[in-house]
Amino acid sequence: MPDDNPPPDYEMFESFQKALGRESSHCEACGNVVDGNDIGDFNILLLDDNVFTVENHVVLCRDCEERDDWKEAVRKKRAAEQQSPTSLRGKLRNLPDSIRDYVTDPTARFLFARRLGVLTVLLVGVLLLIPLVAAVVGALFVSPDTGMQWFDQAITTITAVSNTPLNTLAWIFTGLFGLIYFAHITERERNDPTGWAGEWNPPKWYALAVYSTIGLYGAVMLILVAFESAPVGRRFGARIFWLVGSLGIAYQIKDALRLDLVRMVWKPRRELWEFPTRYGFVLALTAFAVGPPASLPTFTTPLLAALTPTVSTAYITVRLPHDRVFRDKCIAAQDRLLELLRIRDNDDN
């Protein structure tokens, strides 16, 4: 008979937090959001009896907890989330299921992309409906001629918007993207306060430090070129350094934050670090592609490029005093250096 008692090293609270972070505080059976801060709104049960791994913990809302088929629903969902086939034929065969998962899966894997897509569709739909709504309102409440006039005016306005310079449109969409992304990561902060990381994940800030150094070097060179303190020929190489470093930072910052939180190295506010590093990368890309906003000087572009590596460097600098392992290594290195200096002084005497 299997032992139904958890192992001695089982940490129930930590396992619950990791399960909530893995699912972004969504019920695995129905997909509804649960309040990750209120235990009365959800429960976490074991998918397979007497298996106390984090992966075996299932986040369930109170309604699905009472369902007889919740295990089947969870297994079906997890099977659908498995990696899609790598061959072209397999991907084509799996395409309908991938599209259905993209549209219906409420967890964080597709949450932001779906929100951005819905907003884009809504904006286009509103623009297309404005002339029709203007015509109907004018005809019903004023006169048919007024309705036609409003219709023509709306068409003229939309045409003027469509002729807006590419630079202006790009910065408008970049600003909308920033608003949506900030709202998204703020919600993730509320529903997923600690994040999730595997037990044997190596420290992520090591890679983040390397990317920060590369990106900061590229950004500084771009600033020097902009202020004519470095040859213009170095601009291309500086952009390559900046792109590699900033792309690595944008990819790595989230994992670094989650790992620091789950290992309780320190407790940063995720949106205050994740947003400027990732959105700063988007701002710089927009500036490189279409130039800075019309009202700003050209050297704004290299200054925007410096945002991502600067924030990443600040993150590493702020977290180091909280890192016990790093602090112990520094103390050991200092003691070793003092010992070497003492030995040299004795030899000189």
Defining traits:
349 residues; 3 domains; mainly alpha; 68% helix; flat; 13 helices; two-stranded antiparallel sheet
In words, what does this structure look like?
The longest helix has 34 residues, at 108-141. The radius of gyration is 27 Å and the shape is flat. Helix 5 (108-141) crosses helix 7 (166-191) and helix 8 packs antiparallel against helix 9 (235-262). Strands 1-2 form a two-stranded antiparallel ribbon. The chain folds into three domains: 1-102, no CATH class; 107-162; 167-333. It contains 13 helices and two strands. Mean pLDDT is 81; it is low at 196-200. With 349 residues, it is an all-alpha fold.
How are the elements arranged and paired?
Layout: H1 12-22, E1 42-46, E2 57-61, H2 62-65, H3 70-80, H4 88-104, H5 108-141, H6 144-162, H7 166-191, H8 205-226, H9 235-262, H10 270-290, H11 300-305, H12 307-319, H13 324-348
Antiparallel strand pairs: 1-2
Radius of gyration: 27 Å
- Largest sheet data: 2 strands, antiparallel
First and last CA, distance? 74 Å
Strand content: under 5%
H/E element string?
A: HEEHHHHHHHHHHHH
What's the helix count? Answer: 13
User: How many independent structural domains?
Assistant: 3
Q: Determine the structural class based on helices, strands and strand pairing.
A: mainly alpha
Give the beta-strand count. 2
- Helical content class: 55-70%
Keywords: Membrane, Transmembrane, Transmembrane helix
Transmembrane segments: 116-142, 168-185, 205-227, 278-296
